């Protein structure tokens, strides 16, 4: 096979293949997605907190949930707390799960109020799908979760001082 055919095959695999991107590029893309999603959602949560009674009346009461102020605060605080956690990749799965649940309620609201109109449900559906992905996948390679998991694994698998003393004693006994 000549070089031209090899280059054409490589370009074809790069364009058409779904798993041919370098791992670091894929993980950097996931980091970018986490940062963008979290930044936008924290803004939404701050908007809700700025007018909690208006949000409760327009969104929570409209779908018939009891205790509208309480649930309005739940939605707003979930967005304000979980979004920065998603951005930095700390306890990513629970944070994304909370945001996913909030977006499911938003989808329900949009469907109940506007029907199955794509313009009214598309954004909350995209958010919900994105948060569901991170709830399943986790924060990825470039997250604090990964750093903590690596440190925890290293700490749990590190030999303790007692193990080192016992190993030293075994070596002395077996060498006699």
Q: Bin the strand percentage.
A: under 5%
Query: First CA to last CA: what distance?
Result: 63 Å
Uncertain runs are none
- Could you tell me the mean pLDDT? 88
Radius of gyration: 25 Å
Summed up, the domain count is: 2
Helix content: over 70%
List SSEs in N-to-C order: HHHHHHHH
Give the helices and strands, then pairings:
Layout: H1 3-16, H2 23-50, H3 52-60, H4 68-88, H5 92-114, H6 118-137, H7 144-157, H8 161-175
Helix pairs in contact: 2-4, 3-4, 4-5, 5-6
Detailed description of the structure:
The chain is mainly α and 176 residues long. It has two domains: 22-142, no CATH class; 145-176, no CATH class. It has eight helices and no strands. It has helices at residues 3-16, 23-50, 52-60, 68-88, 92-114, 118-137, 144-157, 161-175. The longest helix has 28 residues, at 23-50. The protein is flat and about 65 Å long. The protein starts with a helix and ends with a helix.
Features:
176 residues, 2 domains
In brief, what are we looking at here?
82% of the residues lie in helices and 0% in strands.
């Amino acid at each position: 096979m000549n070089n031209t055919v090899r280059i054409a095959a490589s370009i074809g695999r790069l364009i058409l293949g779904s798993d041919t991107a370098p791992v670091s590029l894929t993980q950097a893309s996931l980091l970018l997605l986490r940062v963008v999603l979290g930044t936008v959602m924290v803004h939404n949560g701050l908007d809700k907190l700025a007018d909690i009674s208006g949000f409760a009346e327009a969104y929570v009461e409209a779908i018939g949930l009891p205790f509208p102020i309480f649930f309005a605060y739940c939605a707003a605080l979930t967005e304000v707390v979980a979004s920065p956690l998603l951005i930095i990749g700390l306890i990513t799965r629970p944070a994304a799960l909370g945001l996913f649940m909030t977006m499911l309620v938003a989808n329900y609201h949009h469907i109940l109020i506007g029907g199955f109109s794509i313009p009214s449900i598309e954004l909350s559906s995209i958010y919900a799908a994105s948060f569901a992905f991170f709830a399943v996948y986790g924060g990825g390679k470039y997250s604090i979760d990964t750093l903590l998991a690596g440190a925890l694994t290293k700490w749990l698998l590190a030999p303790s001082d007692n193990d080192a003393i016992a190993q030293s004693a075994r070596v002395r006994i077996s060498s006699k």
